[in-house]
Automatic annotation (TrEMBL):
SMART domains attached to this UniProt entry: AAA
One BP annotation, GO: phosphate ion transmembrane transport
Record InterPro entries: AAA+_ATPase, ABC_transporter-like_ATP-bd, ABC_transporter-like_CS, P-loop_NTPase, PstB-like
Annotated CDD domains: ABC_PstB_phosphate_transporter
Entries under SUPFAM superfamilies matching the protein: P-loop containing nucleoside triphosphate hydrolases
A GO CC term assigned to this protein in UniProt: membrane
Residues annotated as signal peptide: none
Keyword Mitochondrion: no
Residues covered by the ABC transporter domain: 7-239
Molecular function terms, GO-annotated: ATP binding; ATP hydrolysis activity; phosphate transmembrane transporter activity
Name this protein carries in UniProt: Phosphate ABC transporter ATP-binding protein
Amino acid sequence: MLESNTVELRGVSKSFSTNGKVERVLNHINGTIENGSIVTILGPSGSGKSTILSMCNLLLTPDEGDVFIYGKEVRNWNIPELRQTVGIAFQAAPMIPGTVLDNLLLPASIHQMNIDHPEQFLEKVSLPESLLHKNVQDLSGGQRQRLGLARTLVNRPSILLLDEITSALDPSSVREIEHLILNLHKEENTTILWVTHDLDQARRVGTHSWLIVNGELVEHSPTESFFTTPKDDRTKQFLAKGM
Ligand code: ADP
Ligand code: MG
């Protein structure tokens, strides 16, 4: 039964302590993500969305409960194998000084993989091959974002974690990135956890949607019913105000 879900969170809690003060940021999260779904994760700033993503590829470990990836507890995965299976992309893709190619091959060099035809990954994100030897400093914001995504794809992850990847882009670049990801999803059946603060985006791209408020998963439904017939009052409030 467990194996049918790609990602499963069971009773996941997490606290951080800052200056001796302990703050509980996730409180017994239970959620399952089916293979091939796109779950858009919404919630006010600071509600714990990025923390959830970080626990799916062991950037953080839960204090209580467990995250299962393909039925196996994340802490029992071999880290390089996990990071190849579960890719993550952020709003500001960190780049090393050098060329587009240097940056594209960074994960491959970490995992000592040989990549034939690295330009194929630029193509996947609609960047021209002619950029390969360009310095990353000379890329536009949209091009950097796409390069970050291309670099995440080099490992051919079957699960993608996207953390507000379009929030710094202009509307037409936002649509282009959405289009790229939806194509990838169609071609490879990638399972996607997509944190966004853009309600319209969450509705456009999601198959399912979650709302996190104060470290609690208050609503998880198919995207259409999440937006049209939310069950929880906090969801109704969130959708009305955008919070
Ligand atoms: P969101 O992505 O929903 O904006 P986060 O998951 O980033 O929220 O953060 C949830 C809460 O946890 C915030 O209050 C944040 O300040 C705190 N937090 C996140 N990471 C750390 C950390 N490494 N150390 C201390 N506090 C953290
Ligand atoms: Mg965040």
